[in-house]
Specification:
The protein is an alpha+beta fold. The protein is 47% helix and 14% strand. It starts with 6 loop residues before the first helix and ends in a 13-residue tail after the last helix. The structure holds flavin-adenine dinucleotide. Flavin-adenine dinucleotide (FAD) binds next to strand 1 and helix 11.
């Protein structure tokens, strides 16, 4: 068993760290102040992403992506995650499922998205149905060679400036026919009806979108009718790993800021690092980050080594659950260590505190991860989590 990163992997993470410090940190204050990135700032970051080769790290080389292993994706996302105000999402990763599109769809959407020429949004959640995606009501009905779509979507991040969107909806009102459609910007029947302010300031909004008699050609179906859930399954593994990696980055940055503060700050005539109450907080942080990293990179490595899809899905839920909850606890403690200074928005810890909160909700809430984990334990036994995966095709292989 060897968990040593290769010199190439260390160099890759080093490059991601330099990129983050040079091209993401400098824009944090702008986003904090304006809740947006100016066109000029976006252009600067986009050029730097392309220059560094951090675009579409998840996509195949034949489509123009970087085709990183999941471990390598986590190495770079850990660094990007250190940037506040959701700037860690600036190195774009078009939806994994676009690789299953037709050649025309890949030419029109995936490849330009990989090059950073067009941006996407994903429309799944509805006001009455989020975790329970089978309960969506948005519906498409066939009319000649088109489908007519009606429904209301909410929290469609980035749809206010997206060039294309992946729409998850039912066909013929049948949840068994859940289907993904590709929508283009500016289509008749597409309207942003509400843009609620989120807890944090980030470069994207999270609008509500009304779809009214929107006509979409049948050639815009991704995969096939009824393929909606199947197409997003592998994506969940990748997305949850990347969220977990970003959360490790959040925790590392916050813990380092807090530790540095304790070296300088004095109270009652002593450095606060000399109070046992503070020392123990730092010790807890260090151990939690260590555990999170070990879990993340071990499971990502199992995935890269061909772990069975269902087992990978099951284990990545545990990774997402642990890393997002861990980052939240560490942010809270890092803020507490800095007292009132930690609460002010010019402090990266305060800014992370507001945005990392979302990571426990998106891509499956913490409760939903526990539902998945509980279900897997019932179906396959505790070994899925407590055993070591010695054989890729043995979910729960417990040796
Ligand atoms: C910042 C942000 C960005 C987002 N971006 C997007 C986006 O781009 N596209 C998109 O489609 N959606 C997006 N979402 C929506 C997100 O995916 C949903 O908020 C999430 O899936 C939860 O759904 P919900 O909000 O409807 O909560 P609900 O599903 O209504 O859940 C409410 C509560 O009940 C709990 N719960 C639900 N079911 C169970 C259960 N079986 N057992 C135990 N507890 C349960 C949940 O954990 C939660 O605590 C975004 C959300 C946020 C906050």
């Amino acid at each position: 068993m060897d968990f040593t990163f290769s010199p190439e992997q260390m160099a890759l993470q080093g490059r991601a760290r330099v990129f983050t410090e040079q091209y993401l940190f400098p824009f944090e204050q702008e986003v904090q102040d304006t809740n947006a990135l100016s066109a000029e700032s976006s252009k600067t970051i986009r050029s730097a992403v392309l220059e560094a080769g951090f675009n579409a790290v998840n996509h195949l080389r034949e489509d123009g992506g970087q085709e990183y292993s999941l471990v390598n994706q986590c190495l770079v996302f850990e660094e990007f995650g250190k940037a506040t105000n959701m700037l860690g999402l600036q190195p774009w990763m078009p939806a994994y499922c676009l690789r299953f599109g037709t050649m025309e769809q890949r030419e029109q959407y995936l490849r330009p998205a990989i090059r950073g020429e067009i941006r996407e949004a994903f429309l799944v959640t509805e006001p009455q149905s989020g975790s329970d995606a089978g309960g969506i009501l948005t519906n498409a009905v066939k009319d000649g060679d088109h489908y007519v779509v009606n429904g209301l979507k909410c929290f469609a991040s980035g749809s206010e400036k997206a060039d294309y969107m992946l729409l998850h909806c039912n066909v013929d009102g049948d949840p068994k026919k859940a289907t993904l459609f590709l929508l283009d910007k500016g289509m008749d029947g597409f309207e942003i009806v509400k843009t609620p302010r989120a807890l944090y300031n980030g470069p994207s909004e999270h609008p509500w979108v009304q779809l009214t008699d929107l006509r979409v050609h049948e050639s815009k179906i991704l995969g096939g009718i009824g393929q909606g859930f199947e197409l997003t399954k592998d994506w969940f593994v990748e997305q949850r790993a990347n969220i977990a990696a970003r959360c490790v980055g959040v925790a590392v940055r916050c813990a380092e800021i807090a530790a540095a503060y304790t070296e300088e700050r004095e109270a009652f005539g002593r450095k606060i690092q000399d109070f046992q109450g503070i020392e123990w907080k730092l010790a807890d942080m260090a151990v939690e980050i260590m555990a999170a990293k070990a879990l993340l990179y071990r499971c990502a490595s199992e995935y890269d080594n061909g772990l069975d899809r269902k087992a990978a899905h099951a284990r990545m839920s545990a990774v997402k659950l642990f890393c997002t909850e861990m980052a939240w606890r560490i942010c809270d403690q890092a803020l507490q260590i800095q007292g009132g200074h930690g609460y002010m928005m010019d402090n990266p810890v305060a800014r992370h505190y507001t945005s990392v909160r979302a990571e426990r909700i998106v891509e499956g809430t913490s409760e939903i991860q526990k539902v998945i984990i509980g279900g897997q334990i019932k179906k396959r036994g505790m070994g899925v989590y407590t055993g070591l995966m010695t054989q890729p095709n043995m979910p729960g292989g417990n040796t």
